[in-house]
């Protein structure tokens, strides 16, 4: 596992990623915009996002790299499945998460249920991590690990404390993602 992240390490990772520090996906912008309002209401304070830029102490610093960016050593070991993790006010996602966010699942001609499900997945992951930023203790904790492939996740409790923290963040993630998905700009399917 990677050593703890600091603002300096975050900046080294962002700098090493260069242009690849920001996913080309508009879904990340959409998700952070919609989640900011609901998170601000939930925690009664403004939520400011800083996406793929050098560290800002007064913001939630989000790194969702481009799916085809080179993963530099400054960013540590990269998990092979789509994931994000939190340290303090830094949410770090890996390239598989960036690749997922760059897919065409979010737009027509994909059917509406698929668009909503794909958006919900991104919203939930980011909202769950916001739970760590604003509520639950942080550190690299995860409640799911890959089995055979990235879509086959098996939940495991690592210890009682981590299980409780992760469940709490799952509740927060579900609450905020559900509120945001209602306001999501789901495009109508193309009619041919």
Can you put this structure into words, describing what you see?
This protein is 43% helix and 11% strand. By secondary structure, the chain is an alpha/beta fold. The strands form 2 sheets. Strands 1-2-4-3 form a 4-stranded mixed β-sheet, with helices on both faces. The longest helix has 24 residues, at 160-183.
Q: Short summary of the structure?
A:
Helices cover 43% and strands 11% of the residues.
Key words describing this protein structure:
single chain; 192 residues; alpha/beta; four-stranded mixed β-sheet; two-stranded antiparallel ribbon; 5 helices
Evaluate the radius of gyration: 16 Å
What's the end-to-end separation, in Å?
50 Å
What structural category characterises the helix and strand content? Answer: alpha/beta
Number of strands: 6
List the helices and strands and how they pair.
Blueprint: H1 7-17, H2 26-43, E1 49-51, E2 60-63, E3 84-87, E4 90-93, H3 95-101, H4 112-134, E5 144-146, E6 153-155, H5 160-183
Helix pairs in contact: 2-4, 2-5, 4-5
């Amino acid at each position: 596992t990677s050593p703890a992240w600091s603002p300096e390490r975050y900046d080294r990772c962002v700098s090493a990623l260069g242009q690849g520090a920001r996913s080309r996906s508009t879904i990340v912008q959409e998700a952070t915009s919609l989640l900011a309002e609901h998170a601000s209401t939930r925690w009664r304070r403004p939520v400011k996002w800083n996406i793929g830029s050098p560290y800002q102490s007064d913001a939630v610093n989000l790194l969702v790299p481009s799916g085809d960016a080179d993963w530099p050593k400054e960013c540590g070991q990269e998990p092979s499945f789509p994931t994000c993790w939190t340290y303090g006010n830094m949410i770090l996602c890996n390239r598989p998460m960036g690749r997922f966010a760059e897919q065409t699942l979010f737009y027509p001609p994909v059917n509406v249920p698929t668009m909503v499900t794909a958006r919900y997945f991104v919203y939930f992951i980011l909202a769950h991590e916001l739970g760590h930023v604003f509520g639950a203790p942080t550190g690299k904790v995860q409640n799911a690990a890959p089995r055979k492939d990235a879509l086959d996740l098996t939940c495991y409790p690592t210890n009682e404390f981590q299980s409780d923290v992760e469940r709490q963040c799952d509740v927060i993630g579900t609450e905020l993602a559900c509120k945001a998905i209602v306001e999501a700009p789901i495009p109508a399917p193309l009619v041919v």
